[in-house]
């Protein structure tokens, strides 16, 4: 199996599978509670980011705060896609709905996966995301659903970058649901309720 450490928690056979993508410095257990809140019966697949930034796990390299190494984003998104395909087979998840749930850096790799590999991921709930890839291939995303929640005062995921991401998704035909909150770099209770309704 593609070398990504991960945790897997089995769930109900008819519930969608949640792919949990933690933020910088996190780990597979970070979003388990969020996953349970969003869909209590879902199987949970939670890999660990393979990149270390001074010991903090991330999904891809960055040049500095808020400036991504876009070549690495593409490489790591494809690595995550390969992992998902192998996990689907290993855990007998073929044919099941798969929804990425990501926060911050995890939301960004989930967003990159959505743009770059619609053959692997067509649904994502992303909290505090930015535009992960500025010029992705022009895939038809008309079968893709994305929920995005961002804070209006978030210095780490600035709203203009998220707005560019929303515009790109819509241009490619994705069904986009946008949730805004007045706070910063966080997941609010209202955002969780909105994501739950979307899911």
Key structural traits:
Alpha/beta hydrolase; alpha/beta; AB_hydrolase_fold; single chain; PLipase/COase/thioEstase; hydrolase activity; 5 helices; two-stranded antiparallel sheet; hydrolase; seven-stranded mixed beta sheet
How is this structure best described in words?
The strands form three sheets. This protein has a seven-stranded mixed sheet with strand order 1-3-2-8-9-10-11, with helices on both faces. The protein has a two-stranded antiparallel sheet with strand order 4-5. A two-stranded antiparallel sheet has the order 6-7. With 199 residues, the chain is of the alpha/beta class. The protein has a single domain (6-198), classed as Alpha/Beta hydrolase fold, catalytic domain (Rossmann fold), CATH 3.40.50.1820. The chain has helices at residues 32-38, 70-90, 105-116, 159-171, 189-198; strands spanning 6-9, 17-21, 44-47, 51-53, 56-58, 62-64, 67-68, 98-103, 123-127, 145-151, 175-181. It contains five helices and eleven strands; from the N terminus they run ββαβββββαβαββαβα. The mean pLDDT is 96. 32% of the residues lie in helices and 25% in strands.
Q: Short description, anyone?
A:
The chain is of the alpha/beta class and 199 residues long. Helices cover 32% and strands 25% of the residues. The chain has one domain: Rossmann fold.
């Amino acid at each position: 199996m593609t070398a990504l450490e991960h945790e897997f928690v089995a769930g109900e056979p008819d519930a969608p599978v949640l792919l949990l993508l933690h933020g910088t410095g996190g780990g597979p257990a970070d979003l388990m509670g969020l996953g349970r809140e969003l869909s209590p019966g879902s199987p949970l697949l939670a890999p660990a980011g393979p990149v270390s930034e001074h010991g903090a796990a991330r999904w891809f390299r960055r040049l500095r705060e808020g400036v991504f190494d876009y070549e690495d984003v593409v490489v790591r998104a494809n690595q995550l896609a390969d992992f998902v395909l192998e996990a689907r087979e290993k855990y007998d998840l073929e044919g099941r709905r798969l929804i990425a749930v990501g926060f911050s850096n995890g939301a960004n790799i989930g967003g990159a996966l959505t743009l770059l590999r619609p053959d692997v991921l067509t649904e994502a709930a992303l909290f505090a995301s930015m535009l992960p890839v500025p010029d992705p291939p022009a895939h038809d995303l008309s079968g893709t659903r994305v929920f995005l929640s961002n804070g209006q005062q978030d210095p780490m995921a600035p709203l203009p970058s998220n707005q560019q991401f929303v515009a790109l998704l819509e241009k490619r035909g994705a069904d986009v649901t946008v949730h805004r909150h007045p706070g910063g770099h966080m997941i609010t209770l209202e955002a969780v309720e909105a994501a739950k309704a979307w899911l």
